[in-house]
Each structure stands twice: as C-alpha cells, then as structure tokens.
C-alpha cells in the first residue's frame, strides 16, 4: 500500500533527476497500437544509465509503468532511496498483452462472500492532473480496513485498490470474519434477492445509462403508442390486477414476492433495461404486499407524469405497528 502523501512514479523520477543533476527523463514511445478495445503502448526510458521498458493500455499508464521500473532498478543499485521520496504504487494490471486480466474486484467480493464479510465499498478519493493526463485515487474499505491505489483510469484504480485489499485480508479472513460476519438473516436475504432476480431471466441493456432510469417507462410507452389515459381505470383502483394489466401492455416482466419473513418485507423486481427494485415493510405478509403495490403505483405515477394522480395515494398504505 502506498504512503498517504506518495507522489506518482513519474514525478518522483523527475525530482530524482533534478536533485542529482541528471538530464530530465525522456520517454520514448517505441510501440503504439490503437484503434481497438485493447490499445497497446510501450515506452522506453533511460535515466542514470538505467534502462527499462513499460507497457500500458494508455500512454499515461505506460509512462508510469516504465518510471516505476526505472525507480526499482535505481533503488537496487543504491542510487534512489524509496523511503526518502516514496512513489505511489502504479502497477499495471498486466505487464504485457499476453498476461490475462485478473478481476480483483470480483475475487475480493467472492472472498467476502465465502467468509460472510461485509462487501467492499469503493470511494473516489481524488482526481489530479490535466484532462489529458489525470490520475485517479480510489479507496477500498472492508470493516475498519482501508486500502488506496492510484491509476490513470478510474476502473484500474478501483481494481488496484481491490488487489491490495485482497492481499491484505486473505491471511486474516478467519479472524476478521468472527468480528464482522454477516448474520444468517443477512445471507438469507441476499440469497432470496438473487433467487427472485433469476426468475425474471432478464439481460439488461448495458448501453443504457443509469441516468436514463426515469425515462425508461416513457420510452416503452412511446414505442407502443400508449398514453397514461390507457391506465386511468387501473390508477383509480390501484390493485394488483391493475398492475398486471399495466405491465402486460408495456410487455415488462415483474414479480412480487415476500423478501423476508420476519419482519415481513415485500419485494417487487422489474425486468427493464435499467432494472430496479421496490421494497416495503409490513406487519404481515399480506400487509407488506399491499404496501409494495401502493409504492409501485406511486412510482409509476411519478415517472409517467400521471395528471390525475390522487394526492392521497399514499394513504392506501397499510399502517405498520
């Protein structure tokens, strides 16, 4: 894990050349392969008679990679002390195109699932540098343990933070699990949700942004030449049969079920391009289902701009004692 105030490898190397009066680093691009999903860049660098070559999927990544290798060699020769001016860990996820990508985030989540640990939370800590040469720092947190990593892409920074966390906790998982394990009820809830979701057999459209969620239903209605007037009777009654009628017309799969027994929680899942879930608590299974149905009508009224929305729609919700 990098020290909190560590600089990028390229910056540390530049400061090294200034301090020791070497010529500034000159990054020589020796290979540039673009136009595909897997761009390839190789930079060659020579500092203080130390040479290295670095690979990256972007020019910035390749430069940081080769700077890291030069610093490592300078340290091995006793010319550079990493403790006096530490560099951020800026390892590429692969040293060459022949090395497969390791999905550290998925591996970390699998490890957490195995030991019933809280799932990792990722937060963006900082973004520095001009638009063409940015560095992203991400934090990975599990319980009280935190790791950070920096890269030229958000996704890579997240993966590197996950990699550091994976290596950090794998040896202490049993002890960590004892103090932070998810309860059996938590695991039951997760399994139930996955079970419900699998019944819809929906493959979401990954070209749709989550920001488009509020327009998804309107888009379907426009495609099917429907208007909110077609649902006026259903909104007047606001019952389960009405929901079935609405979603049949929209050709949208959905499912309502009891997500948790005690306390009762009703759950509704919808097979849309931007899948979403509605959950409501109740004092009985029947009560929870009614509350879910009312919440779905409220959601539909908001996203479809229903002009005859009853202001008291929420009063149909069954009280929870």
Explain this structure to me?
By secondary structure, the chain is α+β, with helices and mostly antiparallel strands. The protein folds into three domains: 9-76, Double Stranded RNA Binding Domain (2-Layer Sandwich), CATH 3.30.160.20; 104-182, Double Stranded RNA Binding Domain; 185-316, no CATH class. The chain is 39% helix and 20% strand. The protein is built from ten helices and nine strands. The protein has helices spanning 9-19, 59-76, 104-114, 154-169, 173-180, 184-200, 216-223, 232-237, 240-250, 285-303; strands at 28-33, 40-47, 50-56, 121-128, 135-142, 145-151, 254-260, 265-270, 276-281. A three-stranded antiparallel sheet has the order 1-2-3, with helices on one face. Strand 5 and strand 6 form a beta hairpin. Helix 1 packs across helix 2 (59-76) and helix 3 (104-114) packs parallel to helix 4. It is elongated. The two termini are 49 Å apart. Mean pLDDT is 77; it is low at 92-101 and 310-321.
Outline the secondary-structure elements.
Blueprint: H1 9-19, E1 28-33, E2 40-47, E3 50-56, H2 59-76, H3 104-114, E4 121-128, E5 135-142, E6 145-151, H4 154-169, H5 173-180, H6 184-200, H7 216-223, H8 232-237, H9 240-250, E7 254-260, E8 265-270, E9 276-281, H10 285-303
Antiparallel strand pairs: 1-2, 2-3, 4-5, 5-6, 7-8, 8-9
Helix pairs in contact: 1-2, 3-4
Domain DRBM: 8-76, 103-171
GO cellular component, one term: cytoplasm
GO molecular function, one term: siRNA binding
């Amino acid at each position: 894990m990098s020290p909190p105030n560590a600089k990028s490898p390229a910056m540390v190397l530049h400061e090294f050349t200034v301090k020791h009066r070497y010529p500034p680093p000159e990054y020589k691009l020796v290979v540039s392969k673009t136009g595909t999903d897997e761009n390839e860049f190789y930079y060659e660098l020579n500092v203080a008679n130390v040479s290295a070559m670095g690979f990256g999927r972007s020019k910035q990544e390749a430069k940081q990679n080769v700077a890291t290798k030069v610093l490592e060699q300078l340290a091995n020769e006793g010319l550079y002390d990493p403790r006096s001016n530490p560099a951020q860990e800026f390892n590429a996820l692969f040293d060459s195109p022949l090395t497969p990508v390791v999905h550290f985030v998925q591996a970390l989540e699998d490890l957490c699932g195995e030991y019933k640990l809280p799932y990792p939370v990722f937060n963006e800590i900082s973004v520095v540098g001009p638009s063409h040469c940015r560095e992203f720092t991400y934090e990975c947190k599990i319980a009280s343990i935190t790791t950070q990593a920096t890269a030229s892409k958000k996704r890579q920074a997240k993966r590197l933070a996950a990699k550091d966390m994976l290596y950090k906790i794998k040896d202490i998982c049993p002890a960590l699990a004892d103090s932070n394990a998810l309860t059996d009820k938590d695991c039951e809830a997760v399994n139930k949700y996955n079970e419900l979701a699998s019944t819809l057999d929906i493959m979401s459209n990954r070209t749709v942004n989550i920001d488009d969620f509020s327009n998804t239903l309107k888009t379907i209605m426009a495609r099917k030449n429907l208007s909110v007037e077609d649902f006026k009777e259903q909104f007047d009654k606001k019952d389960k049969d009405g929901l079935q009628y609405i979603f049949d017309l929209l050709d949208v799969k959905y499912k309502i079920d009891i997500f948790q027994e005690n306390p009762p929680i009703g759950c509704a899942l919808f097979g849309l391009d931007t899948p979403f879930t509605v959950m409501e608590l109740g004092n009985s299974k029947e009560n929870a289902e009614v509350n879910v149905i009312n919440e779905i009508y409220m959601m539909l009224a908001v996203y479809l701009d229903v002009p005859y929305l009853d202001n008291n729609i929420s009063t149909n919700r069954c009280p929870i004692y």
